[in-house]
Amino acid sequence: MELRHYLQFKDLSREEYEHLFTRTRWIKERFKRYERYWPLEDRTLAMIFEKQSTRTRLSFEAGMHQMGGAAIFLSTRDSQLGRGEPVEDAAQVISRMCDVVMIRTFEQEILTRFAGNSRVPVINGLTNEYHPCQTLADIFTFIEQRGSIRGRTVAWIGDSNNVCNTWLQAAEVFDFNVHVSTPPGYEVEPERAGLYGTDHYEEFRDPMDAARGADLVTTDVWTSMGFEAENLERLRAFQDWQVDVEMMRAAKPEALFMHCLPAHRGEEVAAEVIDGPQSAVWDEAENRLHTQKALLEFLLLGRVNP
Ligand code: CP
Ligand code: NVA
């Protein structure tokens, strides 16, 4: 079987995502009916964390167990990676002992170096640049609740960070539009976002203009992991970029609100919005589990057609 990695959103085609979503629905339904599905018996996932996590660790670890496999947690603090073992050497060794690897790290380059030396599929569990597993779950959630995302408008309010970059890649794959509004100095960097062009997004100075008529309004923390030294400066710069009730009113009446979590109520989102009727945040989080199980199945077994 051809070795495939999932390092950024555009690593899969739209047609492959459609297959993943079909598998996700099937896997989710079976799981809800307590029906055993163990296609990954004897397979092992190594999970390497250089940053903290709740959802990513839990969804991958629980997902592997639920599919009959095992997951091993490694962190920088208690592995040789934290003592300077070259990432290329770590990749050689880990990929001889495990069947698939998930990594959460800093620069995307660390991940690509690891993948370049791995015998097994490597999955991006978040880097400074991208968070493809998150957007995978988010798009599945949107389709589940609102139908096709093609031609829709997604408003991204706040920092042009890893999750924003991934939405921008997803817009190219699924053919929808992103209205981005960031404070000055925090604009999208198309090359860093890995975009083919600028056809699928538009930048707005005023976040209310970005939200106007949107089918989905989404945001994320103002300070991502690894950027903590900029926290105070960012708190000041992002004050007017909170998704509040008024901003949700500018979007379509049936618009959803999404946030990858963890969230800071009173900063990037008002409590009334994240805890309100348009919020899909708990479904997004749950769907991390189901979509990643389909991703693991695809990377390890190829196209499964029950
Ligand atoms: N959204 C997300 O990736 O959450 P964690 O940082 O808890 O894994
Ligand atoms: N942008 C956030 C996402 C956390 C899941 C971060 O990188 O910290």
As laid out across the biggest beta sheet, the strand order is 7-6-5-8-9
**Radius of gyration, Cα only, in angstroms?**
19 Å
Number of helices: 12
Overall domain count? 2
- What is the CATH architecture annotation of the largest domain? 3-Layer(aba) Sandwich
Bound molecules: phosphoric acid mono(formamide)ester, norvaline
What is the element string, with H for helices and E for strands?
HEHEHEHEHEHEHEHEHHEHH
Question: According to CATH, what is the class of the largest domain?
Answer: Alpha Beta
Per DSSP E runs of 2 or more residues, the count of β-strands stands at 9
Describe it for me?
By secondary structure, the protein is of the alpha/beta class. It has two domains: 9-131 and 288-301, Rossmann fold; 134-284, Rossmann fold. It is 41% helix and 13% strand. It has twelve helices and nine strands. The strands form two sheets. A five-stranded parallel β-sheet has the order 7-6-5-8-9. Helix 3 packs across helix 4 (108-116). 48% of the residues are buried. The model has no long low-confidence stretch (mean pLDDT 97). Phosphoric acid mono(formamide)ester binds at residues 53-56, 126, 134, 260-261. Residues 53-56, 126, 134, 260-261 line the site of phosphoric acid mono(formamide)ester (CP).
